[in-house]
Amino acid sequence: MGDHGCSGNLPPGFIFSPSDEELILHFLDRKASLLPCHPDIIPDLGLYPQDPWQLEGRALSSENQWYYFSRVMENQATGNGFWKPLDTEEPIFSSSAGKKVGLKKYLVYCIGPEGVETNWMMQEYHLCSGKSNGKSYKRKQKLDCSKWILCRVYQREGSCSRSLNHSSDDDGTELSCLDEMFLSMDDLDDISFPN
Predict the structure, then answer these.
(1) Is it true that domain 20-157 has CATH number 2.170.150.80?
(2) Residues 6 or more apart whose Cβ sits within 8 Å of residue 134
(3) In sequence order, which residues have a C-beta less than 8 Å from that of residue 190 and are 6 or more positions away?
(4) For residues 17 and 32, what is the distance between their CA atoms, to the nearest angstrom?
(5) Contact predicate 120/52, CB 8 Å
(6) Where does the pLDDT of residue 59 fall: very low under 50, low under 70, confident under 90, or very high at 90 and above?
(7) Per-residue pLDDT reduced to its tens digit, 65-124
(8) What is the rounded radius of gyration, in angstroms, for the C-alpha atoms of the chain?
(9) By the 8 A CB rule, do 24 and 100 touch?
(10) DSSP codes, 106-133
(11) By the 8 A CB rule, do 111 and 78 touch?
């Protein structure tokens, strides 16, 4: 599969910046149809949801965004939190045929027992059910089409909704949302996450 921690097998100077339609038609559709993808640069991270900071070196990284294939999961719990679905879905249409080819769903990463939202976001790309590429792989695609998603993870701009002051000595250093969350959990011995 190549070096997924950077820009894969692309030559220097090339940036992976596909449109939503390209992610659906050129990557996810081929993965679900069990067809080879050229270039094969987006890794399959399997059955378990990922903490966003664990993606570096495992997922395809491009311009502070991480891309990977995953299986569709009901439980989005990770080792340190969970991905919470937002009530936002966008249809994705083919520019050539004008047909709906996929769906983009949004999730936010929450951490800690209270499920405090962070600035980590995920866009999940799903194929439309019954999507067919017209090839002789229809039988296999029907088996795999609803099982695969393509994930794009990134940090949204802005600061954490909750700021924590842990000392009166302000040296001008800003903490990230995750740093603030981990500092706020120093006194917690037992953290439980939703099922």
Answers:
(1) yes
(2) none
(3) none
(4) 21
(5) yes
(6) very high
(7) 999 999 887 778 888 999 999 999 999 999 998 899 999 999 999 998 789 999 999 999
(8) 19
(9) no
(10) EEEEEETTTTEEEEEEEEEEEEPTT---
(11) no
Q: How far apart are CA 4 and CA 6, in angstroms?
A: 5
CA distance 195 to 182: 21
The model carries a pTM of: 0.71
Residue with tokens 């996450």: 193
Confidence at residue 14, expressed as pLDDT on a 0 to 100 scale: 81
DSSP state of 24: I
The H-assigned helical ranges of 34-184 are 138-144, 177-184
Give 60's strand partners. Answer: 67
Give yes or no for a cis peptide into 39 (omega within 30° of 0): yes
User: 10: buried, middle or exposed (CB in 10 Å: 19+, 13-18, 0-12)?
Assistant: middle
- Do 6 and 63 meet the contact criterion of CB atoms below 8 Å apart? no
pLDDT in the model for residue 77: 85
**DSSP-derived pairing of the beta strands 116-127 and 148-155:** antiparallel
Q: What tokens appear for 148 in the block? A: 């695969």
